[in-house]
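I hope you will forgive my troubling you with a question about protein structure. I should value your view on which stretches of the chain appear to form regular backbone elements. Here, with my thanks, is the record as I have it:
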Amino acid sequence: MTHGAGKLETLRPSPMKWLAMLAICAVFVWIGLRVMGTHPLVGWSCIVFFGLCGALAVLNLIPGASALVLDADGFEIVSLFRRSRVRWNDVARFGETRVGLQRLVGFDFVDGHAGSDRLRRVNRNLSGFQAALPDTYGLSANELATRMEARLAAQRADTAWRT
């Protein structure tokens, strides 16, 4: 299967990841309920925090809530039904990074790209990249970074060929 810059490809997060998150949250909500009588603050804190996290997991299980769409012009990140678009021409490089315990795909913008320089500096200090994808969409971070870098290279080659 080729992953040229022109082919439309939609990647979705693993539902197993979100089901596991939902199960973990349910356990902590149950723990919160169990300790309510003796430690009300701890109980309520567990119920509220893990209840909200569980709701987030349920939202991410809804079709269309999360995805990465790759096309000839760039990629679109869909996260909790919000969409943000990045053009291939605006990206300098992709690579694997670690944020906390999670491995993600980071990317840098080309020089002169509009946006918050302060936020990019903070992100670079945290991860080594100016921005990152929120998920690996069922792939390893290395596989996704390699796929994204291949599409970026294909787009650059196509642009160079046209000029």
About this structure: Residues 88-162 form one domain.
